[in-house]
Structures are given as C-alpha cells and as structure tokens.
Amino acid sequence: MHNEEVGRRKRGPERKSRRGWIITGATVVVAAGLYAGAAAYLGSQIPANTTVHGINVGTLSSDEARTQLERELSPEAAKDIAISVGGKDEVLKPADAGLSLDLDQTLEGLTGFDLNPVDLYQKLTGQLHIEPSLSVDETKLRAALEGLAPKVATKTTEGTLAFDGAKPVLTKPVTGVALDIDGAVDTVTDSWFDSAEPLDLPATLTEPKTSSTTLEKALDETAKPLVSGPIKLTDGKSSASLSPKQLASAATFKIADDAVTMSLDSKKLAEAASAGADGFKSTAKDAKIVLSGGKPKIIPSQNGESIDEKGLDALVLAASKDKDRTATVKLATTTPELTTAEAKKLGVKESIVHFSSPYPASDTVRTKNLFAGSKRLNGVIVMPGETFSLEKALGPITVANGYYDSGVVVNGFSSSAVGGGLSQISTQMYNAGFLAGYDDITHKPHSRWFERYPAGREATLWEGQIDMAWKNNTPYAVMIEAWVGGGEVHTRLWSTEYWKVGSKSSGKYNLTDPRTTYNPADGCVAERGGKKGFSIDVTRTRTAKDKSLPAETKSWTYQPWNKVICGKKP
Fold first, then answer.
1. Are residues 286 and 234 both part of a single domain?
2. Angle between the 181-191 and 138-152 helix axes, to the nearest 10 degrees?
3. Given this model, what pLDDT does residue 18 score?
4. Which structural domain, as residue segments, surrounds residue 494?
5. 178 found inside a domain
6. Would you give the distance in Å from CA 557 to the centre of its chain?
7. Residue 304 domain-assigned?
8. Which 8-state DSSP code applies to residue 186?
9. Phi-psi sector, 523: left (phi>0), alpha (psi -120 to 50), beta
10. How far apart are alpha carbons 536 and 552 in whole angstroms?
11. One domain for residues 357 and 494
C-alpha cells in the first residue's frame, strides 16, 4: 500500500506538466499565426505615411496607389516642358520626346511579406518620401530636341557701321547660339519632371569676328568726329565747306577680324568741293563731236585744273579730328572725261543710214511738230551699248516745250492731241535703227497703214504709253542727224558701218474690207474710208565681219480704213 501511494504521487505532477506545455505551445502557435497574419496584412499595403512626389499613398495597396498616382501625377507628367536656349523659349511635349512616368518601378518594393518586427514597426509608424521613377526613350528625346534646335538657334551675325544721312548707325553683332544636343539630352533626362522654371538647356556659342567693343570704339573715335560739323577745304584762294551729309556720303566702313576701317572716297569729296566753289571745278573741256559743213567734226579736248583728289581722303580724315576742322588742299592738272583720242575711237565718221518719208505739207500745224521733234534729235549721240529712247529724247511733249495740238489716231478714229505728227519721227527713228542693225527694244506700228511709210516697218508714239527704242549693239557711237526739207522728213545716222542688213517683206495677206462705223464723241472727224486692212511680215537679217545674227520676222495686222459717220448709230 505504501509503495503504491508513493508511485501515484510521482505520476500526478508529471501529467500536470504535460498539460502546461500543450497549452503554452498552442498559445505560441496562435500568436505566431496572428503575427504572421499581421505581417501578411501589412505586407499587402504600402507603409503608412509614404508619399510619392507629395502624394500620400500610405496604407494603400499597390493597385490603389497606382490608380491614385495615375490620376494625380500623370496629368502633371503630360504637361509641356518649358525650355530656354540662349534667351529663346520653346516647349517640349513629353509624349513626342518619349518622356513618361514608370509607376511600376515607382511602387516596386513598397509592399511584400516581411516577419522582421523592426520592419513591421516601421511600416506602421515610419515616414517614407520618394519621387516617381521616370522613363526616358532617348531616341525619341534626341529626335525631338533635333527638331527644336533650328527654332532656338541664333545665327552669328556680324555688326555693321554705316551712315544714315549724316547720322552714324551701329548695328550690334549677334552671338550665334546652337543647341548642344548631347548636353540637352542629359539635362532633360535629369530634370524634365515638374520643372517650375523654363529648363535652361546647354548651347554652343559662336562669337562674331568683330566685337561690339571694337565697333563702339570706331563709332566714337572715327564715325562721330567725321560728321560732328562741316569741314572747310581751302587752297588760299578758294574755299568750300563740306557738310556732314556730304562727308557721310563719301564714307564707307570695312569690318573684319575685330577691326574697323573707315575710308573716304576722294572723288566724291572733290565733287562736293567743286559744287561748293567755282575755283575747285575742273576747267578741262571734253572733246565734242558736232555736225559741221554737213558732216561730223571733233572739237579737241583741253586739259585743265581742279582740286587735287590725290590724298584728299587723308586730309579730310585728319581735319575731322582737328579742332578747327580745316584742310589745306591744292589744285592739280586734270584731263577731260572724253579726250580727243577717245572721241576719234568712237568712230563717228561716215553715214551708215539715210531714211526719209514724205509728209503732208498742207497740214502746217503737224509740220511744226516735225520741225520741233527733228530739232531735239539733231546731234544726239548714242554710245556703244546704250539704248536710245525716243520718248526721253523728245519729252516732255507739251505746249510749253514747243509742241502743238495736231491730228492723231485714237482707237481707230481720227482725233487730235499735243504732238500730233510725232509718230512720223518715231517711224523715222525706227527705220534708222532697223537699217543700221540695232536691236529693237520696243515699238508699235499704227493701227492702220499710212502709205507714206513702209508697211510693217513703222512706229507710233504716245507719251507715257508707247515708246520707240533701240539699242546700239556695235562698238561704235552713233550721231543722229534729223531735219525736215524737200517735202520729206529725213534721218541720217553717222557712225562706222558694222552690220550688213537685209530686209524682205511678204505680200499683203488676210485682207479685210472696210465697214461703216459711228463715232458719237465730241470732236469727231468724219472719214470716207475705203482702204482695206491686211497683215504683213517683215524679215531682217544682220551680218558682221565675224558673226551673223538669226533672222528675225515681225508680223503686224492693220485695220481697214472704215467709213466714219459722226453721231450715234441709227
């Protein structure tokens, strides 16, 4: 009995200890489960107090955080990016430049299972502030920047210095600016998102060859002194004052390699001085070609004196910096512009053309215009390569200039105007140029044919509307001799024969009958009419010793001479 009791006492405590361990183990398992559950729960959400670019995404799941960031950050990331290059502003569109947010990368690692109690505690109580991850497609970004480069570029421009009238004007040089593409790619990549100010992008600068400092020095030390007042030129007997405007008109500036040089045109200075003082004018006399005894004659040239142009520029420049602004000059022997030898080389020595046409002597007023026009042409010289314009030679065609009101043809009807009859002078000069081989610049035949003129080879004239002009295409000058006599108008050209000219006219074709027309205008002139209209072709050939020109054919159609009845058509 005693031994059994002792044995039971020993087993009792042993069973109690086992129950305690079972309870404790279960508690641990439950606690561990709860801890793991809490860790799993916390791992499924972003830690509390986490911000992305200031936006609180704490305690949100990744999907919830992504949705919120899409809503609040994506519009910000899509805004145009203001950029500045060398003072020029432009915008870069993120979509075109391959710039965007990478929200997956941004949220990476913010959630996940973690049993570390320190980490779990920080998830509950920590502070995490991050910026979004950015995605940059460098190929697109580079292409976008290359597209913007011309818009923000500034061309290197050299400065200028010139006179506007008598005022010196400096235009400052401009430094060239070119976008540094490689540097710009790096700058945009690093700073494009949420840039509050325009993003300054790097650029390559190209300085002008001549600086503003150099130009301003030339302005102050050379240009301004030149025109600060008049400059007096004197030789002790004569004197002339050159105005600032005259001085400025003779000045030019050479700007190169960071240096500015002002030059003065001695010839222009001399001309200005001659205009201001008779004593400085050239007394040289040009050779003259005149008609004497029915043929050309050369009156020899003569040397003379005028203000010496040599070194005049330096004298004036020095005077511009002196207090008294006076330059002492001298006279020098001068030769005429046209010497006797040069006049002889012009070859005005023989008659190369003589053309005449009859005129209606009964129309005395018209005849007066023929005399007036011929007088203005007589002795005119047309130099090699020069174009002769009849309108310029005769004009202005006014009563004050010696012309009279006489008959003309207007819109197919006879009328009157000042200078009526000068179309015959036009026909004379057209034929003279035609037969000499000169180039026809402009002419227009009459609307109806007058028998006193070669058909298809005649010209009219109407000041301000119709001119007759030809160009002297030879190496020789030509002198015009024009007169009225023997019932005809005459034109002779004096020169040296250069072209052999051939002329051939077709027969009249496309004949049209006259008709009866009515003219209700005031001053109407009734006409009997009766002459047919027609077309005609005129061909000219020209051959010189060393060349020939292509044959040229000109065609013209004349209206018939209609019967004109004054008044309205019944």
1. yes
2. 120
3. 52
4. 346-566
5. no
6. 43
7. yes
8. H
9. left
10. 14
11. yes
Residues in the chain: 570
* Cα–Cα distance measured from residue 425 to residue 394, given in angstroms and rounded to the nearest whole number: 10
The SS3 assignment for 235 reads coil
Q: What's the whole-number mean pLDDT along residues 228-235?
A: 96
Domain closes at, from 307, 338, 369 = 338
How many angstroms separate the Cα of 434 from the Cα of each of 95, 451, 483, 490?
A: 74, 19, 19, 15
Q: What is the pLDDT of residues 330-365, one digit of tens each?
A: 999 999 999 999 999 999 999 999 999 999 988 999
Q: Are 527 and 564 in contact (CB under 8 A)?
A: yes
Residue 156 covered by a domain: no
Claim to verify: residue 322 and residue 432 sit in the same structural domain: no
Instruction: Report which of 491, 475, 483, 386 is spatially closest to residue 435, judged by C-alpha positions.
Output: 491
DSSP label at 98? T
Strands 81-85 and 199-200: parallel
First to last CA, the chain: 174
β-pairing verdict for 99-101 and 88-92: unpaired
Task: Let me know whether 415 and 514 are in one domain.
Answer: yes
State how many domains the chain has: 2
Give the model's pLDDT for residue 125: 54
Same domain, yes or no: 355 and 304: no
DSSP for 19-87 reads HHHHHHHHHHHHHHHHHHHHHHHHHTSPPTTEEETTEE-TT--HHHHHHHHHHHHHHHHHSPEEEEETT
- Position 413 confidence tier, pLDDT thresholds 50, 70, 90: low
Q: Strands 500-505, 50-52: parallel, antiparallel or unpaired by DSSP?
A: unpaired
Of the given ranges (183-197, 375-389, 528-542), which has the lowest mean pLDDT?
Answer: 183-197
Burial of 547 (0-12, 13-18, 19+ CB in 10 A): exposed
Q: Please work out, in degrees rounded to the nearest 5, the angle formed at the alpha carbon of residue 363 by the alpha carbons of 361 and 367.
A: 70
Structure tokens, 58: 């704490």
Give the single-character DSSP code of 279.
Answer: G
Q: Rounded distance, CA 311 to CA 329, Å? A: 9
Contact 373, 425 (CB under 8 A): yes
According to DSSP, residue 462 is labeled B
Let me know whether 378 and 278 are in one domain: no
Are residues 520 and 384 both part of a single domain?
yes
CA distance 518 to 527: 10
Bridge partners, residue 205, by sequence = 177
Q: Considering the entire predicted model, what is its pTM?
A: 0.61
* CATH assignment of the domain containing 309: 3.10.20
Structure tokens of 70? 């899409």
Do 297 and 363 sit in the same domain of this protein? no
What is the bridge-based pairing of β-strands 128-130 and 50-52? Answer: parallel
Query: In a 3-state reduction of DSSP, which class is residue 276?
Result: helix
Report strand pairing: 259-264 vs 500-505: unpaired
The residues with which 566 forms a beta bridge, in sequence order, are: 519
Last residue of a domain, one of 321, 338, 355: 338
**Residues 418, 398: contact at Cβ < 8 Å?**
yes
* 130 part of a folded domain: no
Q: Which of 16-25, 227-236, 466-475 has the least mean pLDDT?
A: 16-25
Give the tens place of pLDDT for each residue, 203-227: 999 999 999 999 999 999 999 999 9
